[in-house]
Every structure is written in C-alpha cells, then in structure tokens.
From TrEMBL:
The keyword Signal applies. This is Periplasmic substrate-binding component of a lysine-arginine-ornithine transporter. Belongs to the bacterial solute-binding protein 3 family. GO terms for cellular component: outer membrane-bounded periplasmic space. It comes from the Bacteria. Residues 1-22 form the signal peptide.
Length: 256
C-alpha cells in the first residue's frame, strides 16, 4: 500500500513539474544587429543561430520563450535590473564579465579578426596601424582588444553602437580597418557586394581579453534557470539538434 502511495505521489510531482515548466517564461535579452547570430528579417522578425538555439532550449526545457530587444553595451545592467532573465546575444565569457554574471556552458567559440581593404598595407604590426582609424562596436571584446593593445600607441579607435554601423564608414574610407567577430564579418559584410573589396587580414588571439567562448549570461542568484538552460543544452547536443543548427549556419566547427 505504501509503495502504491509513493508511486502515486511521484506521478503527481512529475505532472506538477511539467505543468510548472509549461507555465514558466524564459526571457532572453538580445541585440539583433549581429548576423548570423542575431538579426532581423525583412518582416521584422528575429532570426539567426542564437535565436534558433534559444528557441530550441526553451522547447527542450518545456518553457515559453520571450525575446527582449536591447542594446548590447547596456545588456548586463539591464539583466541586473531584471528586464529579462538571461542574455543570449553572442556574449563572450571573459573574466571581467564573470565578476558580474554567471554563464551557462559553452555555446560556441569563434575568433575575432582585423578587417581591411584588400589592397591595404595595414597589418597587426603597430607601425602600420599608427595614425589609422579603426572602427569597433561599443561594449564588445573587440573594442576592449583594440583599446588595450593599440589606443595608447597612436591608433585612433572609433566606437559605434553596432558593428553593422561600422561597415558603411569602412566602405566610404572614413575608417582604415575594423576589428570584428570573424564569422559575423564573413557572413554579414564580406559576403555582400559592399564587402567584396575587403578581407580578413589577420585573426586575433588573446584569451584574457577574448575569453573562453560564448555563453548565456544570467544573474548569479538565478541558479534554477542556469541549471534548466544547461540541462536543455546538454540534451540538444545529445539529440543532434545542436549539430543540425550549426551546420545550417556555419561552414566550419564552432564547438570543440
């Protein structure tokens, strides 16, 4: 009799857990200006790898997904102010950010790059950069890299609200180069008619600045959501969903 009662209790608890999850909404903060990770389609809907991955995480966890648009530069303060539950917007997991937020397990790891006109003599050598205007997106690890490595040595670092705002000035010649995520630059600029005369001149490395890859950022106190996201992410790896999404968006491996 006790065994029957115990089984009944477990079934009730299991059903309650599923019901509770179904009622839960997971709000992701996103800056949709960073293709192919997150951007807007012509009809205004959100699209990109991060968007599909976030929706898959919610579906796997059996919770409702809600996307909250925000400016990347102010994303951590907005997270702390509880305007959303997590940041899913190609945020690199750096030591500096880990002091403020908790991160999920690794989502992907892609390099940063120096972009220049194809015929430019600019390289990563400081002598070729001195006196030049280098465009970066505000609040990014690329801005941190450029300012840390070059700003004190006579290189003019020009910040923009979004990386997509950098490219028109690069094409017009108001900028000499840019530091950007290599994948985003390749698919969001170099593959367009405007970007045909530009190249990735060099990939940039500095683990202290660039961190250990991209993760989902949460408030440190939100251990329940962190566990929910990591469990769902593990299931997406196990059932092949993650691999399917990466093959859809990338031509090379972005996960170890």
């Amino acid at each position: 009799m006790k065994k029957i009662a115990s089984c009944g209790l477990l079934l009730v608890l299991g059903a309650f857990t599923q019901w509770a999850n179904a009622e839960q909404t997971l709000r992701f903060g996103v800056d949709p200006s960073f293709p192919p990770f997150e951007s807007k389609a012509s009809d205004g809907s959100l699209q990109g790898f991060d968007i599909e991955l976030g929706n898959a995480i919610c579906a796997q966890a059996k919770v409702k997904c809600q996307w909250v648009e925000m400016e990347f530069d102010g994303s951590i303060p907005a997270l702390q102010a509880k305007k959303f539950d997590a940041i899913l917007s190609a945020m690199s997991m750096t030591d500096q950010r880990r002091q403020q937020v908790a991160f999920s397990d690794l989502l992907y790891n892609t390099p940063s790059a120096l972009l220049t006109p194809a015929d430019s003599k600019i390289t990563t050598d400081i002598s070729s950069l001195r006196g030049k205007n280098i465009g970066v997106s505000q609040g990014t690890i690329q801005e941190t890299y450029a300012k840390t490595k070059w700003a004190s040595q006579g290189v003019n670092i020009v910040t923009y609200d979004h990386q997509m705002d950098v490219y028109p000035d690069l094409v017009a010649g108001r900028l000499d180069a840019s530091v950007a995520n290599a994948v985003s630059a390749e698919q969001g600029f170099l593959g367009t008619p405007e970007g045909k005369k530009f190249v990735i001149k060099a990939l940039l490395t500095d683990k202290k600045i660039f961190g250990s890859g991209v993760g989902i950022a949460l408030r440190k106190s939100d251990v329940t959501d962190l566990k929910l996201i990591n469990n769902a992410l593990a299931e997406l790896h196990a059932n092949g969903t993650y691999d399917r999404l990466t093959k859809k968006y990338f031509k090379f491996k972005v996960y170890p």
